[in-house]
Amino acid sequence: MTYGVNTSITVTPSNTQPYVYTTNNTGSINWGTSNGSYTIASDPNLKGSTLHVKGNAEFEGDVTFEGDIAIKGKSIKESLLAIEERLAILHPNEELENRWDNLRELRKQYMELEAEIIEKEKIWAILKK
Predict the structure, then answer these.
(1) Contacts of 26 (CB under 8 A, 6+ apart)
(2) Residue 79 lies in a domain
(3) Residues 58 and 22 reside in one and the same domain
(4) What is the pLDDT of residues 22-31, one digit of tens each?
(5) Are 59 and 69 in contact (CB under 8 A)?
(6) Can you give the pLDDT at residue 100?
(7) Measured between alpha carbons, how far is 62 from 59 in angstroms, rounded to an integer?
(8) Whether residue 56 sits in one domain with residue 18
(9) Beta strands in the chain (DSSP E)
(10) What confidence category does residue 72 fall into, taking pLDDT thresholds of 50, 70 and 90?
């Protein structure tokens, strides 16, 4: 069984009329403008679609992605997770903290100690100069 996707795209390059391209069950759309070239390829099993952008991309308003974004092949999702891990960024579970006072208190103590250490490091950096 083959599935198709009906897709309608409106592209408005700077200082020109909008380009509108529509595909019906062909699986992909390709177009080019002075701002770059674009491809949308639809998964034949309807598992998702991929937007390939060569050039700059600008998103306005609320944009939600269920997948990942890659820039020059580098996953933004993986990069952010690695940065959060390296910086020890915590994601407190407020639901648990509401039920467990000692967990909420530990986070408060952690934040206070972290602020104190950051301040001490700033002082040490000034004294080393």
Answers:
(1) 4
(2) no
(3) yes
(4) 454 555 555 5
(5) no
(6) 94
(7) 8
(8) yes
(9) 6-11, 19-24, 28-33, 36-42, 49-55, 70-71, 74-75
(10) confident
Enumerate the β-bridge partners of residue 32: 37
For the chain, the domain total comes to 2
pLDDT at 108: 92
Q: Are residues 61 and 10 in the same domain?
A: yes
CA pair distance 5, 41, nearest whole angstrom: 10
Report how far residue 80's alpha carbon sits from residue 62's, in angstroms, rounded to the nearest whole number.
19
Domain that holds residue 14: 6-73
pTM of the model as a whole: 0.42
Residue 95 DSSP SS3 = helix
Identify whether 20 is part of a domain. Answer: yes
Residues 10, 69 share a domain: yes
